[in-house]
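Cross-posted from the bioinformatics board.
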Amino acid sequence: MIPDFEYAAFVWSSYLVFALVMTWQVVQPMLRRRRIKKQLLEQFEEQQAARLMQNRNSQNQNFRENRI
Amino acid sequence: MSHQDEQVWVIWKTLKRWFHMLGSPPTFSRFARTVSPWLWAAFAICLVYGIYLALYVVPPDYQQSDTSRIMYIHVPSAWQAMLIYVIMAVLASIALIWRIRMTEIMAMSCAPIGAAFTLICLVTGSIWGRPMWGTWWEWDARLTSMLVLLFIYIGIMALYAAFDDRRKAARIASVLVLAGAVNIPIIHFSVEWWTTLHQGQTIRLLGESSLHSSMMPPLLWLTVAIKFMFGAALLDRSRNELLEQDQSKQWVQRELEGQFDARQQTRAADHA
């Protein structure tokens, strides 16, 4: 049995509004989480890089001190 | 203490322990991450079945014809808009009295979801009103108090966004939440206190409903669907807010470490 769904525009427009708002409710938290995670991962990478640089600098300094 | 009292005491203590555990950000984040996909799935199933019943199975109303199908999304949205406000007011009270940060965050995350349901209620009501009442809008008590609810939700969101200090913002907005709670009984009893164009209460939890029994299943399925959706959206939004506020904290970095490693490996593979 195939439904004909010949309802007036009033019915369809109501369901369309409902669908749009529901979709936004689903999508908005996903987009925000993606943005936050991207931002956090970049920060995390910067921190890791800074830590690596610091380690390398201290190693170089130790090496120089040993040579002297 | 009787056996029944003992059981009630155990349940109460368990709930209290759960409540305190969820007050911890890492525990809440883990809980939200685990539970929310299931709630979204339950929402999708109930929504699809509810809409199938509403648009296909239920016969048209003998007076309103197919326009009555708007009711299946209008009524659950209206109920949810008011319920969310009550939940938000309870959370805001807890936040103001006990200063629990998670309740502040959850109360503030309720506002955009509540505003969305209020908007659906107002728009679908207006679309229904045009063929049934012959007007898009009427300044009657029920419609006006619902519009006030939308403005209160927007006001809470604006107030929360107006301060850089999130905790201060949440506390100030919580005061507005409590002040605005007076509107909820006004919405509920508006059809009894004033002569309104909006119809009176047709569905009762206690007592006989005047709605035909064939119209109940889609209404119930969509009501349940919307409850699941609220739960999922609230958990997701609260977790997002928490991650943003706690981005410098160690638990967030620990949570992201796995993803960071995966990203590093992908980059290394791309480089190679």
